Amino acid sequence: MKITHLSVVTLDYTVSDDAGEVLDTTEGREPLVYLQGSGFLVPGLESALYDREEGDSFELTVPAMDAYGEYEESLVQDVPGELFDGMEVAEGDTFVADTDDGHRPVTIVEVSEDFVKVDANHPLAGMDLHFKVTVQGVRAATAEEIAHGHVHGDDEGCGHHHHHAHGEGCCGGHGHDDDHECCGGKGHAHDDDDAHECCGGHGGCKH
């Protein structure tokens, strides 16, 4: 069975940066299971998976524009410290803010007496990503999975929560707190409180 729109796909993958550093991998873990066409993966990878079949293995370089986008200086900004509700913040901390575009993650770049400089770029923005992928399985989605926009059942590979060093997805879009954050992107297997979605600089933040 070939991968088509709304197929349920099981993947093993490793994703690295230009220097060869592994950003995320399923090695030693459960494979990633997702709904093709749901926007769970970064666009460049998802597009490359159409018409692949179980057992196919391939390598792919996804340019930044088809992964997490180019780095935007405009997303680095100073926000009033009062938006953090008296929380102690330090350089390198990541928070979530409500913006006009929804929840966005921000990384603290600098802390001053009155302002906090935040970076709302995804940690992997501006980076080309190098994938090694093996398709482990393909099946038709159920009507319920299609209606909900994500995979259900025991084979869902994104339900075992833990954190990665980069804190955001490496395969998908705006990282979620799941077992495959580096393939997860705009996926649906995230925590109920969205505590690790993207942050922007407008509105309140939470850690």
TrEMBL record:
SUPFAM superfamilies: FKBP-like. One of its GO terms (cellular component) is cytoplasm. It is found in: Cytoplasm. Residues 6-80 form the PPIase FKBP-type domain. One of its GO terms (biological process) is protein refolding. Its main location: cytoplasm. InterPro entries: PPIase_dom_sf (IPR046357), PPIase_FKBP_dom (IPR001179). Pfam families: FKBP_C. Its EC number is 5.2.1.8. Belongs to the FKBP-type PPIase family. Also involved in hydrogenase metallocenter assembly, probably by participating in the nickel insertion step. This function in hydrogenase biosynthesis requires chaperone activity and the presence of the metal-binding domain, but not PPIase activity. This is Peptidyl-prolyl cis-trans isomerase.
